[in-house]
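USER: For my understanding, would you kindly supply a protein sequence with its structure tokens?

ASSISTANT:
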Amino acid sequence: MKSKICLWVMLLCAGVFQYTSVLGQSTDSTIRNISDLKYTNAWLSSGHVLGLHALPVAKISVAEVYGAATKGGFVDYFESNNRFLAGAKVESYRKLNSRIAFQGKLGYETERGKNMAGSSFIDPYKYPLDLVEYADSTAGDKKLERYNLTGGVTTKLGQRWKLGGKVDYEAANYSKFKDLRHTNRLLQLDVNVSLGYHVNDKLEVGLAYDYLRRIESVKFKTYGNTDRQYLSLISFGSFYGMLELHDDKGYTSSQETNPQRDITNQFSGFINLQLSPNLQWFNIIKVGKRTGYFGKKGTGSIVYTEHEGSNLEYHGSAVLKYTQSLHHFDLQLASSALDNMQNIYRMETVPGGSTSVVYYGQAKVLNQDVKRFSLHYTGHFGVNGFTPRWVVEAGANFNNRVQQVSIYPYFRKQEINSYSLGGSLGRNIMLGAGMFTVSAGAKYGSGGGFSNKDGLFATPSSNRIEGRK
């Protein structure tokens, strides 16, 4: 894996409307960036719903429009080398009274990319299975539209208990406009229920439950030269699997809309520590169980694969505050395991003429272990109200993925290690109630491991397995 160095210099100018009502602050302490507000409290910056009680203002609403245009070949296999993106969002936080706090967000984003092939999914890294276009000659334009709605509320129950809930809903449409075409529909729902207990002024503890559901359906179609044959790689990982010819059956069926379904049930425990008047430390540990499948359940429909996995995560945030400076630290550790099974089945005709699917067993095609580490520092200097004059950022990331894809009698092993180090320096220039930000930064990344070690469990009678190096 080659090392990469990225340098950037940015001048950011955004049209943003913002209304604030500040508690205990003079009227000139306008909040120009909602992230600056969140960084004042470790619990609030973590995104945990019970952190809404730590809002330092009575209410704040932000409306934002943004856009980006990128061009260049330094992209992932499913991304575009010529892309345009535009979006808008409205975000609001409000303390109804001393006991109840709300949050809400509504967003829309559209993206158009040229010369796109690769994966047929919006984000293939979220699934244990990928459907990959086998020929680069079929690359074409793709369009993605996202809709997001988030709502959260927390309330105090007496003097010590807190109860909160949060719902994050996302819908998306994704389409390719050149054969082999595909149309995707995404529905993602994250529901959180949290309960906290105030032990004393220095310690708060609690428990939470998360239900996460992601369903992305995909259907393939051709509208051009119907005599041409289109091949897709059914990748079970590491670009290893089997080739499928597009027709009215299979993973890339033109007659069926096949969903990729993924559900996670997750439990967590958290501790919030006020170590000193200036130092706060929020910690949360999550344990989750993941299940899902690709295909349709039913007597006449096929479930092609089924997967299950587990995850263990730690997220810690700390804030150290002084009169005109603030230091925010964020640490994340994660470990996950995932197995994917391919169903063995046969279509059988029963008396009466109807067709049903008979399953005979499963074969494990993917065994995956992933470990992640990230540490990020943000320093605010020359703070006036909530807005810093200078912003310093530094971060480090490490990822390790070990997986084996097995389609008897063949297998492919892969181990990828990657890390990155980076930092930036930003200067906020105040212009009345508005602000310009000028920033410069650098990032270095490298890694190692091996992309493929192919082998055999036994000598095959024929070669039916396809892959890419």
Notes: Confidence is low (pLDDT under 50) at residues 10-29. The chain has one domain: 4-100+194-222+258-460. The first helix runs from residue 34 to 38. DSSP finds two helices and 21 strands in the chain.
